[in-house]
């Protein structure tokens, strides 16, 4: 799990989905509206292939973006091997819900 400032300028789902599609990162995961307290945001769940040396790993990621009062957009990125997704999802949701701007 990592929290990072992003290059996104909005949490509007049309903007976000267009931005990740433009970067070739769509991976079938569309952003959906998602709020964190009083802060607007968006969330997507998606699977993707990661190459580690000669080994290809199937990963499942949860990405949440939230817009702070300062206008900046922050990203929370959680990753796990796809086979462990169901086990790790409650942990991801706990991390995401505990994030405070």
Write the layout of secondary structure elements.
Layout: E1 2-5, H1 13-22, E2 32-33, E3 41-52, E4 55-67, E5 73-81, H2 85-98
Antiparallel strand pairs: 1-5, 2-3, 3-4, 4-5
Jot down its keywords.
alpha+beta, single chain, 40% strand, 5 strands, 5-stranded antiparallel sheet, 101 residues, 24% helix
Describe the structure.
This protein has one domain: Protein Transport Mog1p, Chain A, CATH 3.40.1000.10. The two termini are 16 Å apart. It is globular, with a radius of gyration of 14 Å. It has a five-stranded antiparallel beta sheet with strand order 1-5-4-3-2, with helices on one face. The mean pLDDT is 89. 24% of the residues lie in helices and 40% in strands. It has 101 residues and is an alpha+beta fold.
Offer a quick outline of the entry.
The protein is an alpha+beta fold and 101 residues long. The chain contains two helices and five strands; from the N terminus they run βαββββα. It has one domain (2-98): 3-Layer(aba) Sandwich (Protein Transport Mog1p, Chain A), CATH 3.40.1000.
């Amino acid at each position: 799990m990592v929290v990072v400032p992003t290059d996104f300028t909005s949490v509007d789902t049309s903007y976000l989905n267009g931005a990740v599609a433009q970067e070739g990162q769509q991976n079938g995961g569309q952003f959906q509206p998602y709020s964190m307290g009083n802060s607007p945001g968006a969330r997507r769940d998606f699977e993707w292939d990661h190459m580690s040396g000669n080994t290809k790993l199937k990963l499942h990621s949860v990405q949440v973006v939230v817009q702070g009062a300062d206008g900046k957009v922050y990203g929370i990125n959680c990753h796990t091997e796809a086979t462990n997704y169901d086990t790790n999802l409650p942990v991801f949701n706990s991390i995401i819900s505990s994030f405070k701007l």
